[in-house]
Amino acid sequence: MADTVLVSGANGRTGRAVIKALVSRGAAVRAFIRKPEQADGLKALGATSVAVGDMLAPDSIAAATKGCDAVVHIGPPMHPDEKLITTHFVTAAMAANVKRFVYYSVMHPLRREVPHHARKLDTEEMVIESGVPYTIIQPIRYMQHLETIWKDVLATGVHAMPFNTHVKFNVADLVDLADASALAALTPGHIYATYELAGPQSLSQADMAAIISEVLKRPITARQIPLDEMAAKAKAAGATDLRIETMRKMNAHYDHSGFLGNANVLRWLLGREPTHFKAYVERLAKA
To answer: Residue 6 and residue 73: Cα distance in Å, rounded?
Structure first.
């Protein structure tokens, strides 16, 4: 009988990727969502059932967790109540006697200069000390940042991000990260482990632009977006002041420190070489 896995944040970019990975491995997925109208789309991805609830409403989480073998908890991005929300899911998981609780964190949560990293660190401490059978996934920045600006890249020939063009990142493919998360939720041997998951290449924005140029066979240049320009666009898109301030601090940190990591753990979990940026861009260009 297939394991039933509750996935929180199911309709987000990460949640949807994790659902696909779990389904591909034969799991029965219960998608935790806030908006009922999202249900059909998630069932189309392969979710077996849908639980409608609120991450700040413990009763709805407890009801959703009953009968589940595992939980993959993906909190709302940059949420100020990260620890409280995760505590609700941990409490429900323990009451339901789940076999595995996978907490989707961030690589280098000890970088307290970045507010959402600091909140993840405090939350990891709570998870570890709770007694729940946990696995902590620490993903680095996604290659999929490119998808959000792809149309602009094609239209303008510019790859623009809010940090300098030479600082390095070991970006990872979300498909790989989701596959690793599914493995941790479904297979033995991952309890009480914390996994740093990074991509196999250290690339600057200029390096990425050069690779995109190679794939598209036309020049793409890299540009640093001023933080004020980034903040204005985020505000126009409806971001809260708190989220904008978090984004400012995150990108200012990237500007001087980048985001580097080692791909060995991801390589070991997947049993193959993690996706390289050129292969990802080729996939995106064909989509």
So the answer is: 8
Q: What is the pLDDT of residues 88-100, one digit of tens each?
A: 999 999 999 999 9
Gap between the Cα atoms of 141 and 121, Å rounded:
17
The 10s digit of each residue's pLDDT in 106-149 is 999 999 999 999 999 999 999 999 999 999 999 999 999 999 99
| pTM greater than 0.85 | yes
User: What SS3 state is found at 146?
Assistant: helix
Query: For residue 2, what pLDDT is reported?
Result: 82
Domains of the chain as residue ranges with CATH: 4-141+173-199+260-274 (3.40.50.720)
Q: Give the dihedral sign, CA 183/185/189/192.
A: positive
Rounded distance, CA 221 to CA 139, Å?
27
Q: In what order do the strands lie in the sheet with 193-197?
A: 49-52, 28-33, 4-7, 70-73, 100-104, 134-139, 193-197
